[in-house]
Specification:
The protein is an all-alpha fold and 180 residues long. The chain has seven helices and no strands. The protein is 82% helix and 0% strand.
Length: 180
């Protein structure tokens, strides 16, 4: 197994540990969760760059890398809902977009086409990752503005999610029209 794929699997393992840290109470656990999330997010950037630069792109990586990202981000969001840090409706909108884009990609694959990530999807991911790091750090600091800041950041993520999802749909509507 090559290094990028090992990093992808490490991200999944880190997610499990980070969720445990999120569920435990106390500032040490909150800081460990924040650091673990930031480190896991960095492995996402690293594995892709390494895979492309060293020509180590594999079918396993193409499938597991985006799945590992979703497992990481949505695990954090789900765990933070009871604390009021992630509005449930925001998560529903974000998940709807993910299912929509995945459906477009699957339909395109059946037609022998590839729907690559575009700049809007990458921007959405970047803002989502940075927002979650900020939320986790604010949570660890136990600041009074935490809920307001977290909700504001998540609604920003929702706006970018809707925009990127709409762009994917508009750019690839022919994929759905050509589907059997």
């Amino acid at each position: 197994m090559n290094l990028p794929n090992k990093l992808t699997l490490a991200r999944i393992a880190m997610t499990v540990l980070m969720v445990v840290f999120l569920l435990l109470t106390g500032p040490v656990w909150a800081w460990l969760a924040a650091v673990m999330y930031a480190a896991a997010s960095l492995t996402d950037m690293a594995d892709g760059r390494i895979a492309r630069s060293r020509h180590l792109v594999t079918n396993f990586g193409k499938f597991m890398d985006p799945l590992a990202d979703k497992i990481l981000n949505y695990s954090v969001m789900i765990v933070l809902i009871p604390e009021g840090l992630i509005p449930p409706v925001a998560l529903v909108v974000i998940l709807f977009r993910e299912f929509l884009v995945s459906g477009i990609r699957l339909s395109a694959a059946e037609q022998g086409r590839v729907v690559a990530a575009n700049i809007w999807g990458k921007l959405k991911t970047l803002v989502q990752d940075v927002s979650l790091v900020v939320i986790l750090v604010l949570r660890a600091l136990d600041l009074p503005m935490l809920v307001t800041a977290a909700n504001g950041l998540m609604w920003l993520c929702v706006v970018l999610t809707v925009v990127s999802g709409a762009i994917y749909l508009i750019q690839n509507i022919d994929v759905l029209k050509d589907a059997d």
